Predict the structure.
Amino acid sequence: MAKVLVIHPERCTACRACELACSMKHYGEFSLSRSRIQVNIFLEEAVYIPTTCTQCDQAWCAKICPTNAIVRDEATLAYKVLDDKCVGCKMCVLACPFGSIVLFPEKGKAEKCDHCLSIDGDPECVKFCTPKALEYLEEDTEVRMRQMATAQKLKETLQEVAV
Amino acid sequence: MARAAKKHLVIIGASAAGLAALEAIREVDKECAVTVVSKEKGPLYSRVGLTHFLDGTVKTPGMNMRSPNYARQMNATILTGLAAVHVDFKARTLKLSNRKTLKYDALLVASGSSALILPIPGANLRGVYPCITRNDAVNIDRAIPRVRQAAVIGAGLIGIQAVDALAKRKKKKVAVIEMMPHVMPAMADVTAAKMFEDVLRERGHAVVTGARAAEILGKAGRVTGVKLENGEVVPCQLLVMAAGVRPNLEFLEGTRIQKKQGLLVDAHQQTSIKGIYAAGDVAETTDLLSGQRVVIAIWPEALNQGRIAGLNMAGVPTKYEGSMAMNVTSVLGLPIASLGLWQVTDATEYRIHSSLHESKRIYRKLIFKDGRLVGAVLVGSHVNSEAGILHNFIRTRQSFAVTPDQLVAGPISWGRVLRDNRRAGGVGPPAAAAAP
């Protein structure tokens, strides 16, 4: 069953526990800069928007990858990086229009949110999100609708912020 | 009535452009016959992986780019170890190096480039290698353990990545010799190039710019050094020749196909000969941003152009929006990305904004034309978060309500740009560009 990471920005309190949980699970350290989920904090407007990889259906990172190192999990439809295939060329970094795939010299391999598939398939950020701004749900019509509603709200929020 | 023979599409080259074409053909036509001809033997591999194999990031299988049963999955014939020898435009046949001929309905020339070997004495000494095929990379890999000093001629993308790989392996000292006034002339401006020259020199590597190799010196048939035109000698027991590439078009020499830097193609990637298409390093296309004719020999363009060629060959008319220069790499841990018309210097036609933190090694240069971003150079860790976003801004011709100075100050993130744009009463969020 396809699964989605649903983000509710209006519930986010900018505590950044998701970022800490993510970096701890994947790198064994509390490091905001290594987190695969980012909380965009607009303090003046009190608007907080977590963003991470959208697991695009047409994933440019996967399409451009010269060694087919970015593969989609057939069950959950999330993409993960195969470390023994990734050569570290950074073309995915150029290709992703959202800046959601990165490469640090220490590891030398592309890194992106894979819904924790490379570890246990249980997204750590969701477990530590007290206000439930993050949810990991099976994709069905209702979830789709909720996502659409969230996107709509996000759009309105941004428009309000701008005024 | 006899059934018409199945359409036969032939592709010369099994790298980015060739395989992108094959895959595009199969998206729209599962039936037609497709033959792919590759000069090299062995599993299909990616040239992008070569220097990353050298630095130890992946082993040889890591360079492979398709599964062993790829040909069956694609319902295609893949002939390896065979080169194109001659094309008969009238009969529509391609002669191969085994003297067999293939009859085609449409032909794609995606034969790529070969390394340019400088015509100087000593170029055939043992220990001198180009770095453009898997064989080259394996040869260099084997040579590394027995050398003390390595040198690289040419500080382009391949050359500088070879320097990076050699420097990482056993912490070898490397010398790089570049003909142009600064390193990485095809992806860095003077400011960015200096940052890389500094990084290399700080770690004890030698950077020689504005210098030509006159002769490769040897002893008992093995390389011992490079003599420069000014008489100076750079000692080395391993020399990587990365002085540039030339398109593999020998088999079209003397024909009437139109050629300048590469084969001239129209927006459908078709050459001046009907039914013959070209993509990748051999194709001269139109630059998306400047409108000028260009050969942009990079992986992403090979993919884009190959895909367009494949669709047209399969009978689905598809136009290409144009090519766009882009490069990304890192040298000794310092990343760089350059995009679009990053080279322009004409301040009357373009607005050029830059910000530089020398000590932190962070550089951002943005080039605008008529309020739209047309080019960028980034040096530093922010390549990670910004390169893809800027690429999208350029491709979608995003206009900005924020001033270039605000944008160049950074950091550039979706949230911030969206919000600032809105605040400034600007346009809506840019839609992601349709996949080319």
User: Anything to note?
Assistant: The two ends of chain B are 41 Å apart (CA to CA). Chain B touches chain A through 51 residues (CB under 8 Å).
